[in-house]
Amino acid sequence: MDDLRAKYIELIAKAGDEATLEDLRVKAVGKKGEISLQMRELGKMTPEERQVAGPALNALKDEINTALAAKKAALADAALDERLKAEWLDVTLPVRTQRRGTIHPISQVTEEVSAIFADMGFSVAEGPQIDTDWYNFDALNIPSHHPARAEMDTFYMHRAEGDDRPPHVLRTHTSPVQIRHMEKFGAPCRVIAPGRVYRADYDQTHTPMFHQVEGLAIDKDISMANLKWVLEEFFSAFFEIDGIKTRFRASHFPFTEPSAEVDIQCSWVDGQLKIGEGDGWLEVLGSGMVHPKVLQAAGVDPEEWQGFAFGMGIDRISMLKYGIPDLRAFFDSDLRWLRHYGFASLDVPTLHGGLSK
Length: 357
Ligand code: DAH
Hints:
Layout lengths: L1 H13 L3 H12 L4 H7 L6 H40 L18 H15 L3 E2 L5 E3 H4 L10 H5 L16 E3 L5 H10 L3 E10 L10 E11 L4 H16 L6 E8 L2 E14 L2 E4 L4 E11 L1 H6 L8 E8 H9 L12 H7 L16
Parallel strand pairs: 1-4
Antiparallel strand pairs: 2-3, 4-5, 5-10, 6-7, 7-8, 7-9, 9-10
Helix pairs in contact: 1-4, 2-4, 3-4, 5-11
The protein binds 3,4-dihydroxyphenylalanine.
EC number: 6.1.1.20
InterPro entries: aa-tRNA-synth_II, aa-tRNA-synth_II/BPL/LPL, Phe-tRNA-synth_IIc_asu, Phe-tRNA_ligase_II_N, Phe_tRNA_ligase_alpha1_bac, Phenylalanyl-tRNA_Synthase, tRNA-bd_arm
Subcellular location: Cytoplasm
């Protein structure tokens, strides 16, 4: 018994982790452990022997259990000490008075747009920025000979000779997300898809990468009237001005029929643009009723379903709302510009808390 005690006390002292301790517990006092096996021998002893050996074995078992528990607690303490040493904090350091980073106006506006549409039951869908020309064009009723395809100033991905995968492009608009979303989730649906888009174009009002937000609502009886209501609701919330009027002008897009370009009401007073008043109009987006061929390409039955879609420039509505004069500055990473036009990082826009402060 003394040998057993010495052996286990030493092993327990040396154990470096909980798994080793558990292993020792099983070997010593587990059902088939060494001490338990000895206890089974008690039956073969004379009553006199048993009176000595029984209590001694029980005492040994208690001693081992106590040693195991003490070691387990010690290991836990050591682990905590280790963690506290790694996670120290110097509370005597001075507070940072100047905020370091800001939220980019594009990110802020994307959050604002998402919050407003979420309130109307739209969820956010995403698609890849590198997509096949089928999703970007064909599925949207823009076949290869179509002039819209040439007008888009598309960036094509390089293809090695003999590569027979379908051609890939940097998406020229967010409209392919319509197809991907309907393919995956079918109808009915109500989504917006904000994100980056690309066109080979660079001047004062164009950058090769910019941002759009797509809208799509499909159901049994959705009409242009629903589209008009949703957009007026959106613009009033976005510009934080009640009752902004919109004007629909007949237009043409391959993926909608009928199609409309949408203007919002504005005035120019002393060279100052004011939104939501006056008798001027400002073009802000393209829209229409989703073309039956587009529904079909996405696996949605046009005999059963119909709905509207729209596409809007996020950069443009950001400039309008926050009085940002130059588009290219959005992507210059000039810290002075970012500090001036950026938003505090913890002011998450919500409808109840205020979109912009
Ligand atoms: N995809 C168009 C563009 O990039 C914008 C657009 C117009 C999207 C009409 C739509 C739509 O969903 O219905 O210029």
